[in-house]
Fold this sequence. Notes:
The complex is a heterodimer of chains A (138) and B (117).
Chain A: E1 3-10, H1 14-22, H2 24-28, E2 38-43, E3 50-56, E4 62-73, E5 77-84, E6 91-100, E7 103-112, H3 116-136
Antiparallel strand pairs in A: 1-7, 2-3, 3-4, 4-5, 5-6, 6-7
Chain B: H1 3-13, H2 17-28, E1 33-34, H3 35-39, H4 46-58, E2 62-67, E3 70-75, H5 78-114
Antiparallel strand pairs in B: 1-3, 2-3
Helix pairs in contact in B: 1-5
Amino acid sequence: MTSLTLIRRIKARPEIVFDLVTTAKGIAQWWGPDAGPVLLSESDPCVGGRYRLRFRRLAGDEFETSGEFLEVTPPQRVRMSFQWEGDREATLIEMTLRAIPEGTELTFTQSRFSDEATARGHEKGWSGSLDKLEKLFA
Amino acid sequence: MNQTERLDRTFAALTDPSRRAILARLEREEQGATVSDLARPLPIKMPAVMKHLDVLDDAGLITRSKDGRVVTVRLAAKPMREALEWLRRYERFWSAGLDRLTALAEAKETELRRSGK
């Protein structure tokens, strides 16, 4: 329910996108907060496999993210846990790839684990409530 | 309560359409609204409304004050601001990343097509 959803329509076939969102070489090229270097990138994209990335931001500080693959269905869907180093809270990332005439529609969702059970029963409710939240504090 | 626990409560409180309707209503009513005002447009009975108000109160999303027999309910904005801040922080992070991903994938597609694949 507490979820962030971002959608991109990409002019590339799903296999290309899937590779970029699962392999160590792929994710190292686009994850990260800014154009600072990726210091380490490991990924074992199979169920139960882990990934780890270490970045240096342009500001000079370093940080690491890691997680575990929970579902790997090429070239359609990947689900993984995601956690910042030093952060107690793990989140869930889900990326769904849908083939469309011009290439791939990627739906990226990040949600909070603690809410996942609630989320299943309330998916509809939440999508509307985010809009409302935004309106409340616009 | 730490921030994570507060966020959990806020988001849990927001899962219900009646509770969101109550919050949306309170957002328009700067002076607050009475419990019966809030209950009137909702398709649920008064005890259910009271239960929802308890959940919102526990999450710190509303305050209630009693004057005689009239209870006035007001919106407390801070927990929701925190919830929004969580979402915005991640949105900034991923939005830039997904733009890079899009550019990379499209360059790779162009490259493959040029080589006839």
